[in-house]
Design brief:
The chain has one domain: 3-Layer(aba) Sandwich (Rossmann fold). Helix content is about 45%, strand content about 20%. The protein is built from 13 helices and eight strands. It has an eight-stranded mixed beta sheet, with helices on both faces. The chain starts with a strand and ends with a helix.
Length: about 250
């Protein structure tokens, strides 16, 4: 029952899209919990959910995680949703070891219920992201196929190394996921070549394409498999789920 954090300090790289659609793809064969730890609550709204309680209530001690979890429309997929209140937690929490372990402690009672737990972390480095890193066993780093991609990865790897040494020694990077690729452009191909040259087998084989369908699906409150099941984006995230299962089993 691994906890997989989907993390990048840079916004707009397909992080939430990956968290939603990886969770939905895994839920076709496994029991999955998606945790929305981003105050923007895009993973929550992207699945069409309107929560009465949220992960903020869990972190603040007002609710147990099992009481805040909601069922998504898809079978085998549950969500620990976010709300606007979560922005308050980002301010209230500090970087003390007690505060950054709140999520890990809250998950103790629900982890046995799920085969995979996926955490959508905020696109910033603060107490909420530290909670995701402290709770996670494995990390997926979405990397947009753009010019500054390698710089962003280097910074994130440094952050992960520091967290591993100070907070969570068992934390590992499951893989780097190339996103928003347009194979018609030289830039996308060059970025892919550079990332693979630097990180080798750590990079997932699948590359997620730039896709109008992937961009549209959250506005309908659906994962890509429900909104456009035959699309290139759906095919990519199905392939990612297979790679994730294989890598987790080998880890």
């Amino acid at each position: 029952m691994p906890v997989i954090g989907v993390i990048n300090q840079k916004g707009g790289v397909g992080k939430t899209t990956t968290a939603i659609n990886l969770s939905a793809a895994l839920a076709c064969r496994h029991n999955v919990l998606l945790i929305d730890l981003d105050p923007q609550a895009n993973a929550t709204s992207g699945l069409g959910l309107l929560p009465s309680s949220s992960v903020y209530d869990v972190l603040s001690g007002r609710s147990a995680a099992r009481h805040a979890v909601m069922r998504a429309r898809q079978q085998n997929l549950s969500v620990l949703p976010a709300s606007a209140e979560l922005a308050g937690a980002a301010i209230e929490l500090d970087a003390s070891e007690e505060d950054v372990r709140l999520l890990a402690k809250a998950l103790t009672g629900v982890r046995p219920r799920y085969e995979f737990i996926v955490v959508d972390a905020p696109p910033s480095f603060g107490a909420l992201t530290l909670n995701a890193l402290a709770a996670a066993d494995q990390l997926i780093l979405p990397v947009q196929c753009e010019y500054y991609a390698l710089e962003g990865i280097a910074g994130m790897m440094d952050t992960i190394d520091r967290v591993r040494s100070a907070l969570n020694p068992s934390l590992n990077v499951l893989g780097l996921l190339l996103t928003m690729a347009d194979q018609r452009t030289n830039l996308s191909r060059q970025v892919e070549d550079n990332v693979r040259a630097h990180f080798g087998e750590l990079v997932f084989e699948v590359v997620v394409p730039r896709s109008v369908r992937l961009a549209e699906a959250p506005s309908h409150g659906m994962p890509i498999f429900e909104y456009a099941p035959g699309s290139a984006g759906a095919v990519a995230y199905e392939a990612l789920a297979r790679e994730v299962v294989q890598r987790v089993s080998e880890a």
